[in-house]
């Protein structure tokens, strides 16, 4: 009923292997793009931007990054918070050192710096796997946070150890600092998210993605058929850290504006992004979106429903939220280990046949 | 991508809340998380004072006060969410009770024209009203605390602490790092040796720091701690038999929660303060009659009279007084955030006013001006008595080293002004 596939023929390999081979999906994707780029910027206000959309967009980038590493290449990482901090601090150093340069360049360079750091910390993955690698990346997390707290050069010797985003613009439009209009910060993050998602989608279905997945599924077999594990793992760490670094830079410069490394990029952040990837679906770009949306929206929805509408005490609502998120993670791990993305896949299969299943 | 539509639909629902015609005082509280033990009494005190005003006086100048509570969990991201969701509802003043959130809100609130009152926390150089138009940190700030502690040590040592060793145990965050600069300056001035020992969030693990204290044997230990870190530090100090009367905490390390777990061993522990302790004030009778016995107390209602409850009460009292001042200046009862800012800038707390409110000698006397957003910086010292389980004020509110602090404030605030292109006001 929803999917009318009759007559939707593919006459070339190219059209057969496009991201959205079904016409209905493709149109829906265009509609989402039009709404996101053409409509939301005109009706957005500070509350929407700062409470919902910015965190969603930024966490989605981080989740895509981590998904590449964990979901596609099978390398467990608990260092996301630390790598986000690398992105944030490189962005801060770049912003203060080169105030005239466009923010686009700063954010991309921050991603590049994070990619280098990520590769450095990814080197142990050649020798260790699974839990041991998780512990090694955990060390990266603690080391990086310690470093940014310890070395005053990173925070320009400010008395409090905080970094504050100065006002910077892109083509004359202010996008950081308190005077940045909501639509500008939103669009800036949206552009980065769209680009990241497109790049990630195309990387994961090309040669590089296939080598990652081969390593994930069985590294010895992959090596035997000619996949270079060094190259595959290092590229996965580099691409993943690049995205995570971009999200860290945006998180600091556009969303929070002032950051204290231990508080903003602590171990909780690593777990939060990992939960997004797990709940959203390992090895799925859509899953990264779904996971980020779920974990950003859920606390706000619970707060609005519990505290604002029903008038419950705020502490009860906050505790309830911990209970619900924890419960949902367990439920997902048991009922649907492939996450929201798999739920969506199943629903779509059903919808394609509905109302006449076999 | 699909989820974004749901996001939009939901946000439309959220944004639909109407603005209230009351005087809105958002309370960015934290009743959950690692710092809840410190956050709950403050939030209760803050809410109870406004409840009292509503019940007894019918509000402030005839307009009811509405305390809008929003849970931050001491987390800056939730703090941002709370700020954004409450600012549209006519918020008059923000008191986030978190240095991290304060730092975040300083530029945002200034751009939105809403004042922030970071009472005894936040960015110290915000005292300079020439640069920070919308931020207030009266009656005292961290640097006053650092200087107050040193002054107290000078007082008990007959004015000479040359060659004494002082250790600073601090929460390794923006908050804990605040006093270091001032203490370094003061150590040059008075010739004491300073050693700084950072403790990482949340502060449950302090064995190595106290081992170092045991080895170095400092004459005095100062502490900038918060939440669970305080109790652990007091316990660790007791474990190494550090003399408690030589252990002085900042005002955020001086509540019942911090000393009770250590039991008798905590006897004699000292803490700085900028308000009085206990319930021996006429206002508490009214509070009992109109709020507690009427069953309208916030939270569990079991925090009345604790140090942090009194601090919340004091914060609410200052906010209410500033609102009254704002009503007086603007000539209307239903004030806006801009009026509130003007009221805060013209605030004057005298002994007579505190007595009139039923809180004689509850805090230091001070006045705020356009240049000085930090009041007169008077700091007192309290001491814990483990047998009667009470704090008592052992040193009255005394002036701090304005010369050293003033220079540091000037330096830090002018750096902020150049960084953000702020032209000085008050000319």
UniProtKB/TrEMBL annotation, chain A:
Segments passing through the bilayer: 27-44, 56-74, 81-98, 104-123, 130-148, 183-200, 236-259, 271-296, 316-335
Domain of life: Bacteria
Keyword Transmembrane helix: yes
Membrane topology label: Multi-pass membrane protein
Keywords: Cell membrane, Membrane, Transmembrane, Transmembrane helix
Subcellular location: Cell membrane
InterPro entries to which the protein is assigned, alphabetical: ABC_transp_permease (IPR001851), LivM-like (IPR043428)
One Pfam assignment: BPD_transp_2
PANTHER family reported for this sequence: ABC TRANSPORTER PERMEASE PROTEIN, HIGH-AFFINITY BRANCHED-CHAIN AMINO ACID TRANSPORT SYSTEM PERMEASE
Protein name, entry field: Branched-chain amino acid ABC transporter permease
Source organism (scientific name): Ruegeria aquimaris
Automatic annotation (TrEMBL), chain B:
Pfam families for this protein: Peripla_BP_6
Signal peptide (residue range): 1-21
Domain of life assignment: Bacteria
Keywords of this entry: Signal
Limits of the Leucine-binding protein domain: 26-386
InterPro entries attached to this UniProt entry: Leu-bd (IPR028081), Peripla_BP_I (IPR028082)
PANTHER family given in the database record: BLR6548 PROTEIN
Similarity-based family: Belongs to the leucine-binding protein family.
Protein name per UniProt: ABC transporter substrate-binding protein
Native species: Ruegeria aquimaris
